[in-house]
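Are you able to produce any protein sequence you like plus the matching backbone structure tokens because I've never seen that pairing?
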Amino acid sequence: MTETIQLGDIVIAVIRKAVKNVHLSVHPPDGHVTLVAPTATRLDVARAYAISRLGWIRDQKAKLQGQARETPRQFIERESHYLWGRRYLLSVIENHAKPAVTLDHRRITLAVRPGSTLAKREEIIQEWHRSLLHAVVPTLIQKWEAKLGVKVARYFLQRMKTKWGACNHSAGNIRLNTELAKKPKDLLEYVVVHEMVHLVEPTHSDRFVLLLEHHYPTWREARSELNELPLAAETWTNR
């Protein structure tokens, strides 16, 4: 059973894990709050910590509530789509050939079979995003393996609803959100570095922050820019 802390209109879910430090998070899209604490932490201690961060929690919730949202994509002619932070117009061509996506300096062209559904068009674009990420992520990983002195066993691309990346420290794996194909490439690099630093330090501890500041000094600016960009239009569920 999940314990909760109520601070006025804010409800915080308390999750106990085998961690060393308390970690407070405000999750998109609606700003639900979780507090991960070491297993032996008393609820009153967790509550006191949450109270000390109440201003920060309210700031994060306000940012999420004011954050721009993409309108649902219909994958139709002259619709706006984003790639690497740039806006393109979509052109849709129907023909009896294998579906494909091509790019020029102003337009994304989606070739589909006649009568293709919205779901199918979305699937084709998402697979294209994955292929673009597969073309650049290995180079970024190789670059930062040398800088950080770590080895990524495997990386995975996955559509995530609540975060841009994840790291499995024990397995040496990282996961990246496929939505990153829509964002500027320097923000993709920031997420790669963030997750790879977790291979050195698994938690968001002071050591983690020091390592990130040493290797990627502009990480706060990158995080802020990433969080200010439009969220994907989809149905979100709390994790």
